[in-house]
Here is the input.
Amino acid sequence: MATPEPRITRAADASAWSPPLPEASGFDHLVVETPGLQTHVATIGEGEPVVLLHGFPQHWWQWRAIAPVIAARGYRVICPDLRGAGWTVADDPRIERETRLRDVLALFDVLQLEPAHLVSHDMGVITAMQLTYEHPERVRTAVQLSVPPGFMKFSPKLLPAFQHLPPFIWHRPGASLRGTFSDRYVARPMSEATVEAHLAPMRRPDIDAAVRPLTRGMVLPEAMRMSRGVYRRRRLTVPTLVVFGRRDHPWAEQLGNVCRNPERYADRIEFAYVDNAAHFITDDAPTEVAALTLNWFAQAA
Here is the structure.
């Protein structure tokens, strides 16, 4: 049987989706169809492509306050819902270490995004990191938020940073993920409406069921590779900016210790910190994130 040709279809307005898309002005919504996957993509602006890869348990709407600022500076900003999140639909529920990487590469091909600037947060950084190491020619610059570079060395002092993982590894269908947005992970308390908007797709059984595969199939295997020093034996050639909130504990205190001598592992990498921000830095400090991102594009491209 012939493989269907990838194609782009323009989606209906936000109210036609189920559940309805959260409100965010200025975005166009597309469905990119590739074999086995219908990816919802929110886009805004025209110019050089910038791809924003969301974290967990979030989706395209994470970038609602950042993407328009980047677009206003002359960029075409693409915010996909990655497999297992948002309004993207996958035929196969299995997720392996590089499944999302293959999805993003297919998206790059269909939307003709090469090379693109790449901005990622949390779980999205895993896919972004894979892309920068495996296909550096497709990435112009990279900004990664709230996750250390792949060449970091693990330390026992970092163990508190992973206490959120067991509920994801053993996630039960229908179990609430509201605790993910607790005061431990945000510097500014999120409103109930904001939390609901982030978690709305979890009402879809297939998205709820993806929590375990994402954690077990992608996050843990990649974390094991990092702990074994796989990326310390490779070289990062894409100019990369790593950004953390000062209140993202224990990372903010330990990053310098676990990422010593970065020039040994990367051609160009810099670290930046944002005051009054924690793990969910795009909600805590969208203005600062947008400014750092645009400045990095200008410096490093």
